[in-house]
Structures are given as C-alpha cells and as structure tokens.
Amino acid sequence: MLTTVGLLGFGNVGSGVAKLIKTEGGLIADKLGWPLKLAKCLVRDLNAARGFEPEPGLLTTDPSEVVGNPEVQVVCELIGGVEPAKTLILRALEAGQHVVTANKALLATHGLEIFRKASEVNRDVMFEAAVAGAIPVIRTLKEGLTANRIQALYGILNGTTNHIITRMSKDALTFAEALAEAQAAGFAEADPTADVEGHDAAHKLVLLSALAYGVLPKLDDIHVEGITKLDPIDFAFAAEFGYVIKLLATASLHNGQGPLEVRLHPTMLPAGHLLSGVNGVMNAITIRGHASGDIFLSGPGAGMMPTASSVVGDIIEVARTHQSLESSLRPPILGWRKLKSDSVMPMSEALLGYYLRLTVLDRPGVLSAISGILGAHNISIAQVIQRGQNNLTGWVDLVMLTHKALEKDLQKALVATRELEAVREARLIRVEESL
Fold first, then answer.
1. Which element (helix H / strand E) includes 126?
2. Strands lying side by side in the sheet with 59-60
C-alpha cells in the first residue's frame, strides 16, 4: 500500500516538499505505516534551475497529468494566486482527489466555494501551510482545542513585517531603511505590498477566524492596516510607556460573548507579554480557550523547509484519514459541520486604548484645546509626554495614552483635532492591555 502525490508547482516550497518526501521516506513510512510516492509535478518550464533535482520523468507541463490522473490520490497545490489554482483545485476535487494547499489568498477569498465542493464530494482540503508556516496552529484549533470555546486569538502572522518592525525598534531605522535591508537579506519581496500593507496576514486571519469561530469573514469587513506609517519615534515613545509595537492580528468575541471582532493593525503590547518578545522573521499565536487557558505557539512562519514540513504533514494526515475512515465519517475541513453566517463587528465599535502622537505648536492653550476635544468625545487621557520645542520650527511632539474608548469616538475626535491651526499632524496606534 502507498499514497501517491502530485504537485502543482515546483518552486521553493514545491522543491522542499519533494526533498522531504524523498529524503525522509523511511521516517514517513514508519509513522504512517506505508510510503508516500511522488507521481507527477506540474511546472511551467521543464528546463528551469531548481532547488532540488527531481527524478527523471517526474516533471510535466500538462496539468491533466496531475489533476484528474487516477494514479494521483492527493493533489498538492503550490502555485499560489487565484487562477489557475482555483480551477485546478475544483477539478481535482471533482475527480475524487484530495487537496493540500498553502494558498492563503485563494482560501481567504474563495474558501467557501472550495470547502463546499470538498464536502459535497467527500474529499479533504488541508491547508496547514497557509498559516504561519511550520507552526501547527490549524491542527491545534481543529483537534487539540476542539472542546474549547475560543475566547480570543492574537497573532504575529507575517515574518517580513515582524522583521522590519524589529529593526525599527532595536536600531531606530526608518521604515524605508528597514524595508531595504529586509529586501537585501531576502526577507522581503521586490514588491512588498502584500506584506507591509497587511494583506498577507489578513488572509491568514480570515482562516484562523473560521477555524476558531466557525465564521469565514469577508476580507472587506475586516479592518486591515499595515506598517508603512510607523516612525522610529513611535517605538521610542512606546518603550518609554512600557510597550512594544507589533503588527497584531486579532479575532475575539467582543466582551467575551459577541459579536465576532476581527482586525489587523499595528498595536502596542505590554513589554512583558509573550508576543512582545517575538522578533525577526518569527511568527507566533496566542489562543485563549475557556477550558485550556492561554496556549502560545511560535516558530518560523515561512521558508522552504518549514513550509514544506506543514505541507507534508497535511499529506500524511490525508493519507492516514483516507485509509482509515469511510468518506461519510470524514471530519469537517474547518472543524465545524456548518459554517455560520454571523457578521463581523464593525471596527467603529471596537473598544481600545490609544496612543496619540500630535505635532503641535508649543504655545499656551494647545493642550487644553486638545483635551477639551477628547473629553467632548468621551475620551479620557491616561498619560501625557511633551518633548522640548524645535527651535527652528516651533513644533513639538505631544504624546498621549488614553483610557479605553470607542473607535468611532476616537476617529471623530481626531478629525476635530486636525482642524486646529496649532496641530500639524495627528497619528494613532491602538493599545492592547489585557491580552
């Protein structure tokens, strides 16, 4: 007995998957009870240079040699993007093949269609590698914490942004300097938009929300904010207040009951929190179950072999399930028999603390005017720092921490504050105290 696998894509991750199946075949067989066999691998160019040299005859440019091939039981999609990945996955499911994918963008935008098709034909869609690389967070939510009501989930889900933030924090680099350094080191793409604007992490957050709460949010309903507006001075002020800045993904039940609150934005965390110590390209997730308490998972969130580790783990799980269960008993893909249609709470209703950095003219009455605006919008000031005047410009940084306030009230207050003649700039970073 053996399980046959076909790869769609033989790039960095695909090569890693092939390498792992080839070099660790004995270990896999010992754990699974039978071997995995690579049957075919779809590529664009048969003659391209590769990180792992495949066996003769393994590569093909014809998708039908993988998708719909009766000799391939598990199709592993690693080409990325929406098309042709979506079409090939749906075709594979229709053909009775199981699917393993690392395609977070596709699942975040078209997951319902794919999951419904898999349920209809009684086939698996596994995607551990789509979220946080080698960290087994999906299996933890689906299996290890299945008896728990998940009260909250917080994550650092993108290694590129975490590396940039770490460099800005530790060495006072500007965003542009830290990004250029990350690109030179291979930690950031030539076009880093998906990472630095938060899109990559948001795709992962959608999938984690579905696993934790049985609700697959629409991306357009989630507040997503990247790191491009962060400034080294904000990291310095954060440290002075006892905080660390991270790009934090959050999914939680508002006030512990509902509705579902899903958001992604730069956040100040207490310096002693476990997530505050996650630096460089590492990812981490904290999951709070009502029975388990807080679970902390951390590890490499990307890279050839860490991602391949999750992909091959999914293939093994599919192989094990395929052999041991009747299709009618196959466990649900997202851990829920039926996804709920609950809406996500609007960001305007979020209740958070805020860090405000205002560039103001250093003259009498300015602080009083700003305090009056905040008070009129139900916002209470917790701490204030004012730095000395710039003798050349007359402008000064006025920094405040607020007590918890509604996002909608804070935004209205900022609009009014920016209209003051004595205010040149007003920036905010949200603050999480009780993670």
1. strand 125-126
2. 59-60, 36-42, 3-8, 74-77, 98-101, 125-126
Place of tokens 């603050």: 431
DSSP code for 208: H
Strand partners for 5: 38, 74
State the maximum Cα–Cα separation within the chain, in Å, rounded to a whole number.
Answer: 82
- What percent of the chain is helix, strand and coil (3-state, nearest 5)? 40, 25, 35
Residue 192, token pair as written in the block:
């880093």
pLDDT in tens, the chain (435 residues): 889 999 999 888 888 999 999 989 888 888 888 899 999 999 988 888 777 778 888 899 999 999 999 999 999 999 999 999 999 999 999 999 999 999 999 999 999 899 999 989 989 999 988 888 788 899 899 888 888 989 999 999 999 999 999 999 999 999 999 999 999 988 888 899 999 999 999 999 999 999 999 888 889 999 999 999 999 999 999 999 999 999 999 999 876 677 899 999 999 999 999 999 999 989 999 999 999 999 999 988 777 788 888 899 989 888 887 765 444 555 566 666 667 767 789 999 999 999 999 999 888 888 899 999 999 999 999 999 887 666 566 788 899 999 999 999 999 999 999 999 999 889 999 999 876
**Which three-class secondary structure state does DSSP give residue 162?**
helix
Tokens 């160019």 identify what position? 45
412 noted as active-site residue? no
Q: How many residues does the chain have?
A: 435
- The answer to whether 65 and 57 have CB atoms below 8 angstroms apart is no
Q: Of 86, 204, 408, 412, which residue is the catalytic one?
A: 204
> Using CA atoms, how far apart are residues 73 and 39, in angstroms rounded to an integer?
9
What are the E-state strand segments in 167-306?
223-224, 243-253, 260-270, 282-289, 293-300
The label of the residue with tokens 């075949």 reads 25
The amino acid sitting at 49 is A
Per CATH, the number for 3-133+304-329 is 3.40.50.720
Per domain, the residue ranges of the chain are 3-133+304-329, 137-300, 347-431
Helices (H) and strands (E) in the chain, counts: 13, 17
Which letter does DSSP use for residue 144 in this model? I
408: β partners: none
CB 193 within 8 A of CB 199: yes
Architecture of the domain whose range is 137-300: 2-Layer Sandwich (3.30)
| Superfamily grouping for domain 347-431 | ACT domain (3.30.70.260)
